[in-house]
Amino acid sequence: MSAGLSPMLHQDLIGCPKCDAVYAVRIPELGQKATCARCHTVLISNKYEAGVRTLALAFAVLVLVLAAAFFPFLSINAAGIGNSVSLLGVATSFRSGVLVLVSVTSVLFIVGLPAVRMALLIYVIVPIELQRQPWPFAHRAFAVAQRLKPWAMTEIFAIGCAVALVKVSGLARLEFGPAFWMFIALSVTVVFCERYLCTWSIWNALERDGAQGVQS
Amino acid sequence: MTCARVWPMEVTRCDRCGHQLRSADRRSLQWVWALWLTGVLAYIPANLYPMLITKTLTGAQSSTIVGGAVEIAKHGDYAIAAIVLIASVVIPIAKFAAIAYLALTVQRGSRATAHQRTLIYEAVEFIGRWSMIDVFVVAILSALVQLSVVASIQPGPAALTFAFSVIFTMLSAQCFDSRLIWSAAEDHGKAQHGG
Fold first, then answer.
1. Angstrom distances, CA of residue A188 to CA of A192, A195, B94
2. Do B195 and A22 make contact, defined as CB atoms within 8 angstroms?
3. Per-residue confidence of chain B (195 residues) as pLDDT tens digits?
4. Which of A179, B64, B140, B194 is the most exposed place for a label (fewest CB within 10 A)?
């Protein structure tokens, strides 16, 4: 289909990442979305000040994630003995055995990858918003950030806390710590951050503002 | 997620995002099946071995995934028991079935429309991560419940194999090229709209 088109024209085309249908690019009106007619995937969304809002929310998530890692999220009390644990505590709770993998991967999915992803997004979006050239390796950074998306599991952890609380209710008394409420706030903030993020617009801006494309 | 830039056939690498360009290719299904099988195999010991080992003054007790959910239900917390059962039993099994179905229908053709199967794929992508709940619960509890002799909780071997199962199934779903659903539908003359 597209083999006969000149390379210049390809810049004005968009291929649906889900089903490969090809369309001519037309930026939707403010507040509207361009969706694939075939599989209804959102191709481009045009929200009011999407870049600044994504940036603000990404900052909020980054600060909350890092803070939440240090505060206790659950505390326990049974027969006069108490214990409270933060995510850093979870990460360092086992020093030996294969099961150390369980706690390390958990903490990676809950705070590590979300923090890295948000830091990368900030790194990519700041120069775009300042109308500057992209910072070095911005293309690579954004590609990694998008790949990490399914592995950032902050909101799942918040539900996990609730399950844990009930699971040992017969054994001891558990209470939520400050970090639990941070994780609830995080889950909501992440959802809004993702809603403002338009993948295509960022790739487009990176290409427009970058003097040269990615070298690899 | 790719950057949606369109290139002529002879270009092999996207100049915008650096992603390698490929037409939807059925050979990618081999990766899907290999990772799928790893996920299924890891899911078997995850159900047979204990997930949590609870030591109290009265003795040690180990519980599997289903056993743990039954115990929660006995306490009367049916909603939480349902969450655990859905996240660790219903979702993984439904996911195995859905990925196998998608891969098979790409290979053999299907009566379901491409749009319906795209919805299944999106559901798999969206819901698969939630199976990690049980792994997180194990990590939380075994770090938190360390009250010397009164009570302590240790993770069982199933925690690790279950985590592997979830991770490999997620990778399997990510390897599945959703464009195959549409190109296969075109081959079978069942496309809904023109490309």
1. 7, 11, 27
2. yes
3. 567 777 777 777 777 777 777 776 777 888 899 999 999 999 999 999 998 888 888 888 888 888 888 888 888 888 888 888 888 899 999 999 999 999 988 888 777 788 888 889 989 988 888 888 888 988 888 888 887 777 788 888 898 999 999 999 999 998 888 888 887 666 655 444 443
4. B194
ipTM: 0.81
* Helices B28-48 and B157-175, packing angle to 10 deg: 160
Question: Token digits for A157?
Answer: 């952890």
Q: Which of A102, A109, A156 sits opposite B138 (nearest CB)?
A: A102
Mutation target vs A (from B141, B152, B192; most A CBs, 10 A cutoff): B141
Q: What is the CA radius of gyration of chain A?
A: 22
Take residue B57 and report the two structure tokens written for it.
């003054």
Cα–Cα distance between B61 and B50 in angstroms, integer? Answer: 9
pTM, two decimal places: 0.84
- Which among B17, B19, B137 has the least Cβ separation from residue A164? B137
- Residues with Cβ within 8 Å of residue A151, at least 6 apart in sequence: A109, A113, B129, B170
Q: What is the C-alpha separation between B6 and B1, in angstroms, rounded?
A: 14
List CB contacts (< 8 A) between B150 and chain A: 78-79, 81, 172
